């Protein structure tokens, strides 16, 4: 009897210990999940990207806007944006998509990344920090219409599509040819569009013209397309890539003739407002541009507000 009693007691004590251990284990697992958190119930993308947005050059319109977004969104509290170069950002994006890893970039289109990865998506921006659909404008120095009327008419008539610009950037990326070389091929293959731009424009003999641009492939595409068209009309064209603030200053002061690169109404708003009235605004040369935070399609997240603040 005494032996059976001690056997039963041993079993009861053993079961109690197991139940207590199981209960503690369940609590630990719950705590761990709670501490890890999640953006979408499964993956904590904020933690996975180390609360970091992969950006481009300092001073770019989208870089400035992203700093504003970090200040505006509680979900981005404690985040940072790495500012390096467009090429470095694209390289990180290629690597992440190849390995199916999370990444959040400062994205915009037209850009070759959207031609290469058409399923990428913008995160919703409920506060409207990045604005809505944008346009890329043409601006000219004061007096250009009087000094160089045919050049003025040409840049005023220049209009093309997002797909046109992206096709040049993507071909350059895929073939390794520089943007200027690809732009020349594009002009040869799209004479129907070129003929619309040059309608009523007379040729010249060696007239100098300076296009002020930015160093990014999107704006380099439009600049070198226009350079090719103008050179075919007899112009001596120089393309000068500079930072955004210098681009506006150059056209406003007359040291450059024109630019095809301003993004409005939001991306370059601060620079535009600073020099407003000191240049001519010829209106959009491209519609349907956009900027924002972009993620690969395999990331199950839809909004900036779905992210988590840094701990």
UniProtKB/TrEMBL annotation:
Keyword terms of this UniProt record: Cell membrane, Membrane, Signal, Transport
Keyword Transport: yes
Top-level lineage group: Bacteria
A Pfam family that the UniProt record links to this protein: OpuAC
Gene3D superfamilies (alphabetical): Dipeptide-binding Protein, Domain 3, Glycine betaine-binding periplasmic protein, domain 2
Coiled coil regions in record: none
Record-linked PROSITE patterns: PROKAR_LIPOPROTEIN
Positions of the ABC-type glycine betaine transport system substrate-binding domain: 45-188, 212-309
Region forming the signal peptide: 1-26
Subcellular location per the Swiss-Prot or TrEMBL entry: Cell membrane
Protein name in UniProt: Glycine betaine ABC transporter substrate-binding protein
Organism expressing this protein natively: Virgibacillus kekensis
């Amino acid at each position: 009897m005494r032996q059976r009693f001690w056997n039963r007691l041993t079993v009861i004590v053993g079961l109690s210990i197991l139940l207590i251990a199981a209960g503690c284990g369940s609590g630990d697992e719950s705590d761990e999940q709670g501490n890890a958190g999640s953006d979408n119930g499964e993956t904590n993308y904020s933690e996975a990207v180390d609360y970091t947005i992969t950006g481009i050059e300092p001073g770019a319109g989208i870089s400035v806007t992203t700093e504003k977004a970090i200040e505006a969104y509680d979900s981005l509290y404690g985040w940072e944006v790495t500012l390096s170069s467009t090429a470095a950002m694209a390289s990180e994006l290629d690597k992440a998509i190849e390995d199916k890893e999370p990444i959040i970039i400062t994205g915009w289109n037209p850009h070759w990344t959207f031609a290469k990865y058409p399923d990428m998506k913008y995160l919703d921006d409920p506060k409207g920090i990045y604005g809505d659909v944008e346009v890329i404008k043409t601006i000219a120095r004061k007096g250009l219409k009087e000094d160089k009327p045919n050049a003025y008419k040409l840049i005023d008539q220049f209009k093309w599509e997002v797909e046109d610009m992206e096709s040049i950037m993507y071909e350059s990326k895929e073939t390794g040819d520089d943007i200027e070389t690809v732009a020349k091929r594009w002009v040869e293959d799209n004479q129907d569009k070129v003929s619309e731009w040059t309608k009523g424009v007379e040729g010249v003999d060696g007239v100098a013209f300076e296009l002020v641009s930015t160093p990014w492939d999107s704006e380099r595409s439009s600049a070198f397309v226009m350079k090719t068209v103008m050179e075919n009309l007899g112009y001596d064209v120089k393309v000068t890539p500079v930072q955004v603030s210098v681009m506006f200053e150059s056209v406003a002061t007359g040291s450059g003739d024109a630019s095809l690169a301003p993004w409005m109404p939001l991306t370059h708003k601060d620079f535009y407002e600073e020099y407003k009235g000191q240049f001519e605004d010829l209106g959009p040369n491209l519609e349907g541009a956009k900027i924002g935070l972009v993620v690969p399609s395999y990331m199950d997240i839809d909004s900036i507000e779905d992210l988590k603040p840094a701990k």
